[in-house]
Amino acid sequence: MRANAAICCKPGKFTTSGILKLSIFLISFFISVSSFAQRTYNQVSQIDFIVQETDSLSIKSQKTFHLNKFVGVDRPYKETWHYTERKGKVAVFEIRYMLDLTEYIEVYYLDGNRLILSEEYETSYSTEEEQLRWGGIFYFVNNNITQVATLGRRKSYSRNWDFESEILSRFQKRFSELKRHIW
Fold first, then answer.
1. What is each CA distance from 110 to 39, 96, 139, 150, in whole angstroms?
2. Which residues, 6+ apart, have CB-to-CB distance to 172 below 8 Å?
3. In this prediction, what percent of the chain has a pLDDT beyond 70?
4. CA dist., res. 171 & res. 178, Å (int)
């Protein structure tokens, strides 16, 4: 048995003005999609440029301090903080710490006081070889994620994971903590 076609048109129903309207609509649609993609590409390129400049500056002027913390009341661990300032403002900061046999790394790049790029990594040392268990890079424009790249699967990962608010919340907490210890 033959199925009916999904799109059915009667002969002669397409007029020149109808085809013209459809063509204009499709052209407008593709132009708007491509301009959105171009804008995102430009934003990411600008962030990458700022990150490269900041990394070059970090090689010359990175500062480090350590914080001793506890998980619960009886499991101490040490956080190592690295940060770099540009024109009196923090340009990048990184936190590293080990819990059990897993190293956690958080990196935050700023433009002014706004987050523009966040990187997170979990590396396991429980076997003879180190293994990157999870990693993520998140580009931000005006506190909105514009591009994401992840590798592996995070324990807290789920389809409903609101990583944008989680990262922004963690950034605010960590940035406040940094400011308390350096100013």
1. 20, 18, 11, 20
2. none
3. 75
4. 10
Q: How far apart are CA 76 and CA 69, in angstroms?
A: 6
- Which of 5 and 100 is assigned the larger pLDDT? 100
- Distance (Å, whole) CA 63 – CA 181: 12
Q: Which two tokens stand for residue 164?
A: 């944008």
| Residue linked to tokens 């956690």 | 104
- Whether the full predicted model's pTM is greater than 0.85, yes or no, is no
**If you average pLDDT over residues 30-50, what whole number do you get?**
72
The DSSP code for 53 is H
Strands in 63-71's sheet, in edge-to-edge order, are 63-71, 75-86, 89-99, 102-111, 114-124, 131-141, 144-152
* DSSP β-bridge partners for residue 124: 102, 131
Q: Which residues contact 132 (CB under 8 A, 6 or more apart)?
A: 121, 122, 123, 124, 151, 152
pLDDT(13) > 80: no
Using one digit for the tens of pLDDT, what is the confidence trace for 63-101?
A: 999 999 998 888 999 999 999 999 999 999 999 999 989
Q: How open is the CA angle 92-95-99, to the nearest 5 degrees?
A: 165
Residue 130 and residue 183 in contact, taking contact as beta carbons nearer than 8 Å: no
